[in-house]
Write a structure and sequence with these properties.
Length: about 190
């Protein structure tokens, strides 16, 4: 990945936590304080469940885990779309706010991140990711890359969705009488 955005923008909601053992209403746990909204209007807005500590541990109950995998998939797609990221190297991505919530001191494990991406490569995960094989690059690779699980494409728009968007944009250009160059600039700014 090229750049990683700073952790300045998390959800503006309050996280529910178990009742405290203290009866003092003036003592507020760090976890129950609202997460401040960013002053940067272009910063990524994390969903409320990003502030829930169990979100960073894959759940053992199948129904809960499936819901969690859907939530992770949506988060990864939204984050990558916002930052115009098309490929993820898991080792590097684990250090970014996508997989690490500094406020909660929680981070997704490499094993769990691989499981999420692997799920995203399936029909159930809507084929929203694809592993990039190290053998295609003919470079020395790490053990994770040798397993084919070190780097992946993230399809926040699948190829067929890009084709539809390009065709719709091309038709709009023809109706509006714009030049091809103006159309390309406007298309990529909206993507």
């Amino acid at each position: 990945m090229t750049t990683s955005p700073s952790l300045t923008n998390l959800s503006g909601t309050t996280t529910a936590v178990p009742p405290s053992t203290t009866d003092n209403p003036h003592i507020i746990s760090k976890a129950t304080q609202p997460i401040p909204a960013s002053t940067d209007p272009t910063a990524f807005q994390f969903p409320p469940h990003y502030s829930f500590p169990p979100f960073f541990t894959l759940q053992p109950v199948l129904a809960t885990r499936t819901s969690q995998l859907h939530s992770w998939s949506q988060l990864i797609q939204s984050y990558c779309h916002h930052h115009r990221i098309f490929t993820l190297t898991l080792i590097d991505a684990l250090q970014t706010p996508l997989f690490s919530n500094a406020r909660l001191s929680r981070r997704l494990s490499l094993r769990d991140a691989r499981s999420i991406i692997q799920w995203m490569t399936t029909l159930e995960g809507q084929n929203r990711a694809e592993w990039i094989s190290a053998s295609k690059n003919n470079k020395k690779s790490s053990p994770a890359d040798e397993e084919g699980m070190g780097k992946c494409w993230i399809y926040w728009r699948r190829p067929e969705e890009w084709a539809v968007a390009l065709e719709e944009s091309r038709r709009a250009m023809l109706r509006g009488g714009r030049s091809f160059m103006a159309w390309m600039v406007s298309f990529w700014l909206r993507a």
